[in-house]
Amino acid sequence: ASMLPEWMGKASLMTLGGAGAFGSGFQLDSAASTAEAIAVLASIIFVHECGHFFAARLQNIHVSKFSVGFGPNLLSYQGPEVEYSLRAIPLGGFVAFPDDDPDCPYPEDDPDLLRNRPMKDRAIVIGAGVTANVLFALAILFTQVNTVGFSQQDYQPGVKVSQLLSTSAAREYGVQVGDVITAVNGEKLAASGQSVNAVVERVKASGASAVHFDITRRGQEGSVGIDVTPNTSPGGEGRIGVQLEANAEIIKRIAANPREGAVLAGREFVRLTSVVSGSLFSLVSNFEAAKENVSGPIAIVGVGAQVMRTSDLSGLYQFASVININLAVVNILPLPALDGGFLFLIAIEALRGGKKLPTEVEQSITATGVLLLLGSGMVLILRDTLNLFTSLHERFTPRSHSAPRAAAAAAAAAAAVAAVWVLFF
Fold first, then answer.
1. Catalytic residue among 36, 49, 237, 394
2. Is 49 a catalytic residue?
3. Chain centre to alpha carbon of residue 413
4. pLDDT digits over 76-105, tens only?
5. Which of 126-130, 147-151, 403-407 is most confident?
6. Given Cys at both, which of 76, 130, 135, 304 links 85, Cβ 3.0 to 4.6 Å?
7. CA 42 to CA 115: how far, in whole Å?
């Protein structure tokens, strides 16, 4: 039987920097911003692996290898017990244990081998990667709220008219871009993001009946009353041909003191975790609609590069926080070969009164998970690489040149296959 690569062994804790809800459309326009995004991703993976590594070493558990990246070694150092390495592709990492190494220098019954430790010790080591990412995300958010602050919307009563369509009924009755609708048919609109939906629903329900708007206009004192008779859809719903947005301004909220900063950072962490978890849950509940939002490591780097180019320091903080949370949430899932999968096996062992599953069963479960991870990773990398080359080619090549476009597609496919081969083999 063929053997798995050394970093995929049963006693290896591996992180592949690649599954996220970011979408598959991206461009790598700037070498500097791309390098910065890769550095952020690599640092987050480094923190995750440090969690596993230090949790083991602080308990005197033997570790054989610590690596950031996959592929060929760029730098390596052989310590008294551990080999430290930096590899060519900084999109993952692993901590390896000597337990299943054929050349393991320790006797099989050594109490400091990971497999011979009590369930609690093993669970601490396995869960420490996720814990490290959670703490890192909280630290990033705490730094953000105490320095540049969180971006928040300061809502004011009403909704703002941001655009008038060419067939707009509202335009005919005098509504202008920039107007703020403060009341509909005498009912005042709250200072809330839900006010836009409230206006839309009332206009739809009016059908062809006139709707009275109270409007405030820049440069004018007081409010203006305008009656608008909507056009109707085939279904009889009213339409006035405007695009509305919440009447809000973006403000930066900086914590007044460290205590408030900790509270605000915790709330933001909960919000971001909810967003990430909801995106992952949508893959199960509505896969067809959500599958295009699943990103591999290349697309995540592309999104990060865009953040570096177009956003301020707040964007960098948010990107790093979301990647940390994404890595933590994905890894804690009870799936084979992920941290959560190993914790699930320990939970089964606990339910069996401390009796482990047969080694062959555990290895089969882990091997199945590794194959699934490899398969999904290869698909995402192929798709992301093809999308990248396609976007670059469409940007620099006229659409009429079909032959160059075909050649570019072939080159993109070859590059994608090469990327997968270097990463995984």
1. 49
2. yes
3. 26
4. 999 999 999 998 877 778 899 998 788 888
5. 126-130
6. 76
7. 28
